[in-house]
Structure formats: structure tokens, C-alpha cells
Amino acid sequence: MFAVVVQTTVAYAASVSPPAERGRNIGVVTSGVVVGILGARIVTGALAEVWGWRSVYAVLAVLSLGLAALVFAVLPSEEHSNSPASYRQLVGSLGGLFGQRAFLTRGLIAFLLFASFQTLWSGLALPLGGTPWQLSESQIGLFGIAGLAGALGAARAGRWADAGRAAPVTGIALTLLILSWAAIAQLPWSLWLLIVGIVVLDFAVQAVHVSNQHVLTAAHPDRVSSVLGSYMVFYSLGSAIGAATTTAIFTAHGWVDSSVLGAGFAACALAVWATDRRPPRDSANLRSEKAGARQAREETQGTDRP
Predict the structure, then answer these.
(1) Which structural domain range is residue 270 located in?
(2) pLDDT at position 218 over 60
(3) How many other CB atoms are there within 10 angstroms of residue 242's CB atom?
């Protein structure tokens, strides 16, 4: 209920950034989020093995208190040119937001994107801890290094978005996400192919996630926080679905089928992106097409006359 730091941090960075630098800054902050998620796997695996699993929570509690102090000491307050709306008005305005095609498209992509992401990271420890690998907790945590490499490699996604290339970057990254699962599926036979797949997967997820946030903040510069908070609903739901389904699929059918599940989520996200790229055929367009067809018929009939 209180894990809102990601939403508020990204929204804060976007709201205090100049429009020309918003994508880059969102990319930097989102990279920090992903680095924290993946880096924690390395650190907590080692802590759990040396001092027990409770030590993880003690260390994180101390770090959280230190970060809270830094927030108050270092970050400047936001400036609002207009009088802020009441909380009730902001919550009421979210209904219209969920009715917009662009928002729903990016939200659905995020849902499927993070379902694919968590299919890997929530289920990875199961086959690595079992036969034939039988790795320890700290050894499993080291696979987060591969994820870090991919996430940091996508830090430029924000600059690409600033340059107006958010849409093609999304399509290319989702294609890479699908391909990464072909390597990840080889986990029962090859750890090196698994590492390659992890790097590509995290690169793709980071690129799409940054592009999504840039597109939404650029479209709604006056309500950045509420837009990103609503977008994160899809992020959270997708993560939960991916985590729940991958463990069930692995238990019943094994890692290869879990990989097919992750690739399926990614393929659905690519399909949503491709469908959104088609311009809507509204009534005005249909009338224009009909008028053009009529004119073409009349010209053809005129040339047929002696």
C-alpha cells in the first residue's frame, strides 16, 4: 500500500525537468529503479547466505531511513505556476484518463511488458536452485549482474525519446524481448545463453518502459504525477500476473513452458503496439475516401466518352 516511491520519484523528475531533457532524466531515474531491483538480488543473496534472511530487511530499513533524510536535505521543492487542484478533483479526473486510447495502449504494453519481465525474475531461482545446476542463493543472485548490464545499456532510451523516436524504439525493443526468450529457454542446458537472454531482456524492458513514460508525460505535461501513477497500475498488475503464473507453469510443466509464457506476453505487447500504429478510420477519413473514389470514377467515365 505504501510502495509509491517509484511513482513519485519518476513523476518528480519529470515535473522539474525542461521538456527537451525530460526523456533523458526519466531514463536516468528509471535506470536507478531497475538497477535497484536487479542489484538487490546480488546483495540480498549474499546477505541471506552469510547472516540469514532477516538481515536483508534490517539493512534495507537502515538504507531507507538514510534516503529519507537525503530527500529532505537535498531535493528542492516543486514549483507550481497554477493553483493545484484538490485531491478529490484529481482522483475524479482519472476516469477520463483511462478512456483515452494513447494512455490505455501504453498501459496495456506496460502490463504485458512487466508480466514478461517478472516471468523471468520471479521464476529464475527455481530452475537454478534445482537440478542440474543446484546453485546457492548468492550464486543465483549474481545473475542480477547480467540484468544490470542490460538495464544500463538502455539508459539512452530517454535521449531517443527526446529525439522523437519513442514509437520505433518501442517496436524494436519488444521484438528483442521476444527473441531474448529463445536464449532464456536454454537454461536447462546452457547458462551462457541464459546470461545473453537476460542482458537482452532487461535492455528491451528498460527501453520500452522509458519510452512509455516519456510519451505519457509529453502528452500530459500538466498532470505528470497522476498520469504516471495511473500508468504504474498496469506496471504493478503485470508484475503480479507474471510472478504468479510463472511459478505455476514451472511447477506443472518446467522452464521451457515458462519461457513460452514470457515470450507470449512479449508477443501480445508487440501486437498492441502494432495495432496502435494504424491510424483510426474515423468518419471524416471515410468521407474523404468516398469522395476520392467518386472523383476517380467520374474522371474514368469522362475519358471513356468519345
Answers:
(1) 5-73+97-280
(2) yes
(3) 26
